[in-house]
Amino acid sequence: MKKVSDILPYFLSNLKEFYPENEIKSFAYITIKYFFDMSKSDTIINSENKLEDREIMEIKSTISSLKRYEPIQYVFMETEFYGNSFFSISGSLIPRPETEELVDWIIKDNKGTKKHYLDIGTGSGCIIISLSKHLNGSFTGIDVSFDALKVAVSNNDRNETDVYFDKFDILKHDLAEGKNILDDSIFYEYDVIVSNPPYVLNSEKEQMSENVLKWEPHLALFVPDEDPLLFYREIAEKSSKALNPNGLLYFEINEKFGKEIVKLLEDFGFVNIELKKDINDKDRMVKSVWK
């Protein structure tokens, strides 16, 4: 590996036993963009550019990390979500494209209004920070994981947004019981609550790739098979007490449980419930209105 044109073949030859070819190519171009600020077309134009020893070592180090199935977002400690750059480290879940679809739905529904938004299980903060960039109002993110909240706060600074984050366990406390650390005031009612809670069944672990199982926080991913709607039930119940009249509740969901979640929301008194498919034609999002 001596010049830019050697990078892609080097990735393919070293990672062919670990990943599909299209994924390896994606890794290669992400790496080239990160280290050289070159697009795919730039690599053709600059194909004969010689690599420095330091650059070769950085590429080899990246390959070594990928062989350990470390997600490339963690390797470079950043990812893109809804057109913005976010820190991405192992304490927080890597944002998924389907979550961008959820964010887009919320923005389109609430554009031109001024509301109070709450993101339950905020993780890296990607949802609530993205909402704050496109909507008017006040924005709060809560999570049980202190490690995730540290990432969220860093992302708030990185994106120059004004989101308030707090540590909060939705399984143990009602939202009305929450207090802001800064001024000890009680949480007030919300106009929009959104959550992308853990929804992958423990039994589905065997179907997941090693880069997810080895590196991403299981706390943010998995729920017991015997109680797959645990978080939806808790959040729906507590949102019913914390939402203003005609307030909106949005969920990202496991495609297997769309009808069950709709029924659960109906039982708690939510109305005008919409089950929405993602770009892959899977039931992935739900919106409901508090009566």
What does this structure look like?
The chain has 291 residues and is an alpha/beta fold. The protein has eleven helices and eleven strands. The chain folds into two domains: 4-67; 93-290, 3-Layer(aba) Sandwich (Rossmann fold), CATH 3.40.50.150. The strands form three sheets. Strands 5-4-3-6-9-11-10 form a seven-stranded mixed sheet, with helices on both faces. A two-stranded antiparallel sheet has the order 1-2. Strands 7-8 form a two-stranded parallel sheet. Helix 1 crosses helix 2, helix 1 (7-15) packs parallel to helix 4 and helix 6 (97-110) runs parallel beside helix 7 (126-134). It is elongated and about 65 Å long.
What's the short story on this structure?
With about 290 residues, the protein is α/β, with parallel strands linked by helices. The chain is built from eleven helices and eleven strands. The strands form three sheets. It has a seven-stranded mixed β-sheet, sandwiched between helices.
Task: Describe the SSE topology.
Blueprint: H1 7-15, H2 21-36, H3 40-45, H4 53-67, H5 72-75, E1 78-81, E2 84-87, H6 97-110, E3 114-120, H7 126-134, E4 136-143, H8 146-158, E5 164-167, E6 190-195, E7 200-201, H9 210-215, E8 222-223, H10 230-242, E9 243-252, H11 258-267, E10 270-277, E11 283-290
Parallel strand pairs: 3-4, 3-6, 4-5, 6-9, 7-8
Antiparallel strand pairs: 1-2, 9-11, 10-11
Helix pairs in contact: 1-2, 1-4, 6-7
